């Protein structure tokens, strides 16, 4: 299969490219300049996603299309609209993030039906890339709340920056909220399976087991530079003032996602990211959370 991957020089896109090449696929990696590196065996397509002629010409060469680039909402939606029209019935996979589940709050473990409900009914999703891909019967792969691996990581990123700035790591309330973790290689493996099997109109969570937000803050406090005051509980009001409404509400609740749909449909299993306690979580910080 000839697959176009946008964001191919990035952390997530690069992992997807490597898995595709390893699986024997021909990969066209979309990059913004010749200086950006690609995995061995991939062919670079140099251009910008805001150039819709470039997007159309690149998609015409493809048997499948993966969007893993970071671009503005407007640019992403316009590019995906063009790509989906050119691809017709060929598989289109979009890599999304777990924050798009929104403040699921007191709900413990949720599956993809929650995401689909937001796609179909939430005003917040109107005009989003996720809704476009869904209506085009594409596949959405949702990354974990805490994604790590291959020398990078996100906790989300601002938690570590804030902890370094103030000398202590924060969590909201009692810190018993559960967040799913995942390894970028496992996400990439799921994307490849989704392309190969091409089930129409699906959402898949690329997640392993969860950990608590208090434990995450404690790991940040032990491992991030300059954090000497440990982890501290703060109220939702303080979190809102620091992080804003969106992230404070999410951090105050669970972001515990179920990965069983990908296992049942595709035979996927998170081989790298099975939660094994402190060693796995500390790896997130050792591998370099920005």
Automatic annotation (TrEMBL):
Gene3D superfamilies: NAD(P)-binding Rossmann-like Domain. InterPro entries: Epimerase_deHydtase, NAD(P)-bd_dom_sf, NAD(P)-dependent_oxidoreduct. This is NAD-dependent epimerase/dehydratase domain-containing protein. PANTHER family: NAD(P)-BINDING DOMAIN-CONTAINING PROTEIN-RELATED, PROTEIN YEEZ. GO terms for molecular function: aldehyde dehydrogenase (NAD+) activity. Residues 3-205 form the NAD-dependent epimerase/dehydratase domain. GO terms for cellular component: cytoplasm.
